[in-house]
Amino acid sequence: MSELDAVVIGSGPNGLAAAVRLAERGQKVLVVEARATIGGGLRTSALTLPGFVHDECSAVHTLGILSPYLRTLPLEAHGLRWLQLAASVAHPLDDGPAVLLRGTIDDTTAQFAADARAYRRLVAPFLADPHGLLADALAPLGWPRHPLQLARFGWRGMRSARGLARRFATREARALLAGCAGHSVLPLERMFTGAIALMFLVTGHVEAWPVAAGGSAAIAEALASLLRAHGGQIETGTPIRALAELPPAKAYLFDTDPRQLASIAEPVLPTRYVRRLRRYRFGPGAFKLDWALGGPIPWRDPRCLEATTLHVGGTFEEIAASEAAAARGDHSDRPFLIVCQQSQADPTRAPAGQHTGYAYCHVPAGSTVDQTAAIEQQIERFAPGFRERILARHVTTPADLEAKNPNYVGGAITGGMADIGQLFTRPVARWNPYTTPHRRIFLCSASTPPGGGVHGMCGYHAAETVLARIERLPRTPLA
Questions:
Q1: 6-59+216-280+415-472: which CATH topology?
Q2: Beta-strand (E) ranges in 264-342?
Q3: What are phi and psi for residue 271, nearest 5 degrees?
Q4: Does residue 305 contact residue 343 with C-beta atoms inside 8 Å?
Q5: 82-210+283-404: which CATH topology?
Q6: What is the pLDDT of residues 18-42, one digit of tens each?
């Protein structure tokens, strides 16, 4: 492609979203990807036995279906199809029925009537305009479109999950909140873990958490198809290690972690800025298992099969202990698990009558401890006979995650720690977090606001930043 306007380095959901946004505004865009296939965390592979299809990383797309940008794109016309079950989340408990996050507040609170009023007061105010809330919450600091709603959300969400859980008396409501807060990859005593919990509860009442038909790779493929329809191009198998390897263009957007940006662009960035990039904190990693199963997971409460996602870890206190252990560098004997059962919604993931299984727990960054037994014991605890259904398993360690995707430093899959020290200043404190001291180099990865998740909003906001400046930029090599 001659006369490029923008080059995007990396083809994760944010890189592809940035490229699509630029291309639909008439810019000539090239995406370069180091691996042979596109997608970042949106890759799907045959990891176990023939006929079984597994998601390498991201599996259930809570924010994908609700993304303020992705939901405006005609991705269905480019092959994407969302598949949903009756519930978003099931949270099994030891001596009683599981608690399910269902579409309506009434259906959810019927499982913990004593906390129905408290739950409604917490969640219902944000269901009047959930898309407005998401548009503001998934944007960098600035002037929100719905300031009162965002302020109300921030006032409640700035609390820790433990503080938010004090609203509830029942173990069911507390457990449901803890499982949602566990996605923060932070101890549940930390500030703003309440915001993560509240956001996931709200989304479950807007859309049932979906999977992509055929695998998460279908999302990347739909974005790539749309990009090509707008004239954009993609080159795979093209690792970038130095600026001299990049073709001439006006702007360069890095869908990489800050460490890679520092390494590649160090010659043209100030030393102080490079040092700050290298001090970026990534947080705990993940240890993941994929299974080929002879049948569905035999949950003690069969209603668990009605949800795409399981939060497996028992009570609030148990989940809090597991997440605190990972943060301080320890491993829990009873880890909190995020379990996905994509084949319940998508029968194409496994041969007829058989199923796939997927689970991961949080572990210290770079951990080399095998958590297979601990993970399978946790599932067996709530699904007796689970091990007997395992036909084959595939283990993914933190080192494996980083080897497949260098953005996952130490096995961290969310783009970096989202604690108070980095939530609003990722990757470093700048008025516009997508810019760098070099006027033609931009960052669009999950290490920028709003952070991890398959929503494409980091890429969208970075592209908007570029569009506001691109007419004033020269089209020359960076090196």
A1: FAD/NAD(P)-binding domain (3.50.50)
A2: 285-293, 307-312, 337-340
A3: -60, -40
A4: no
A5: Polyamine Oxidase; Chain A, domain 2 (3.90.660)
A6: 999 999 999 999 999 999 999 999 9
